[in-house]
Amino acid sequence: MSMRSRRTCYRKTGSRSASPSSVRSAGELDGFSQIDSVCAQTLYSRSGGSRRPPVSVILSVTSATLKKVSGPEASPSRSLAFGAGSDRTVSDPSPTQFEIRGADWLSLDEAQSRIFEDVGRLPAELIDVGDSLGRALAENLKATATLPPWDNSAMDGYAVLGDDIAGASASTPVVLTVAGAVRAGEVPSTPVEPGQAVRIMTGAPVPAGSDTVVRVEDTDAEANPGRVCVLRDRDRGRNIRPAGADMQLGDVVLLAGHVVTPGSVAALSALGLTSVSVVRRPSVAILATGDELRTPDRYDDVRIGAGVPESNGPMLAAAVLHASAVPVRLGTAIDDEHDLRERIESAADADTLVTIGGASMGEADLVKRVLDDLGFEQSFWRVRMRPGSPFGFGWLPRQDRKQPVFGLPGNPSSAFVTFELLVRPFLLALAGHRNILRRTVRCIAGEPLKGPSDATCFLRVGLDSASHPPRITLVGPQGSGLVRTLHAADGLAVLPDGVREIAEGELVDVMLIDDAPAAEPFRAV
Hints:
Blueprint: E1 13-16, H1 34-44, H2 55-59, H3 63-70, H4 95-99, H5 108-116, E2 124-128, E3 141-142, E4 152-153, E5 157-160, E6 174-182, E7 196-200, E8 212-215, E9 227-230, E10 240-241, E11 252-254, H6 262-270, E12 275-279, E13 283-289, E14 293-294, H7 299-303, E15 308-309, H8 312-322, E16 326-333, H9 337-345, E17 352-356, H10 367-373, E18 377-380, E19 385-386, E20 392-398, E21 401-408, H11 412-430, E22 440-445, E23 449-450, E24 456-464, E25 471-474, H12 484-488, E26 491-495, E27 501-502, E28 507-512
Parallel strand pairs: 6-7, 13-16, 13-17, 14-15, 17-21, 19-24, 22-25
Antiparallel strand pairs: 2-12, 3-11, 4-10, 5-7, 5-8, 6-9, 18-20, 20-21, 22-28, 23-27, 24-25, 24-26, 26-28
């Protein structure tokens, strides 16, 4: 499968060298604030300090990193560059060398730091405002007019002088002469004089001389034509929206990195725009691997135990779409080096390559070997997390750029969790989003939560939001090969590295997985 050619440069070759097997201390992580370094040290320390840090440390893409990867200062035309001016080299990255690195697992924090090092957003493109929903703006947008351009009525009623209706009541109404009417879009022809009222509609310009709009409910609605009785004076000096109440000429109305919502479409239209500059969505080539995988047309094999459903490819294609990216399915490769190589080479034009399976220690796991033959520059291939430890990241040389490659484990839950923690934020950053993390909530454990003590553990849980804080329970068995719990889960409960169990009734951080990324609110600055 081929894709439209593009010349986005991801990472140029330079001079700096970094060993893929070196693990920096938490205090040395690039792009992280001092407070997050301290939290990371707490999280991954085996002694002393708190054993249960905030989940933001687990997710580890901090505000400093967000500013670095997709802040408003990024140029709309800037191409993504991994380690620009640097060269990650691997000394003789043979298949044997891959296999002996198992003891050198990276912490989840360090893996995220490696992935996000020197990452920027993709170039901008111009699209119709009507097609911009869910896209990240590539530049700040300013008001080109003052809105509204004049004082206008907030109610249907009568424009009057406030002093004229002082003391008005049902028993002592104020009677005014109706001098005309003005509707939205019309220009008032005469000012309001003392003792007069002008019938006015919501949104219509307020006639000169008037400082009050009396709502029609507080009048007799001209029971006698040409005259109106005002029955209350509660609206005195009210119900007028001043010119510029919405936005002033030159106001920054929408910020670069803002993800367009339906309300944003209204704002864009109010700015007079028919097209808007947004960050291009990354294309993601997805390759599932394994002789055992069966697509729906071969499901009879699954029924007789001669294969397993190929659920990872469709799942990740949907996840990629949900991460504001474009999935490109490369199909399912058999356990054959030639087939794997052809499919990987066909993805040369994709912004990112994601492989699924073939990444652990089995003899038939060929993905790493084929990638190595193609010049793969490995950053790491094991992460201290459950599920999902056999996760890899690095780059493939593609003409004038380096293509980021994510190697996901083949078990469905492992593939899902590693995508959520390590791939999804990366794709959102490429797409120019300012908010790239899932929302997290502090919950009460409704049952004991257990995990390994040597890795960060993510458990699939359901939330009972009727309790405060929400109460969570496991949605079922937590085996990494299970699919049904992915559908049933509301979130992932986090057991930090070094924490074997969280007792029933204790607090636990939960990353929600059924919510869309939070959008920057529409606002006038």
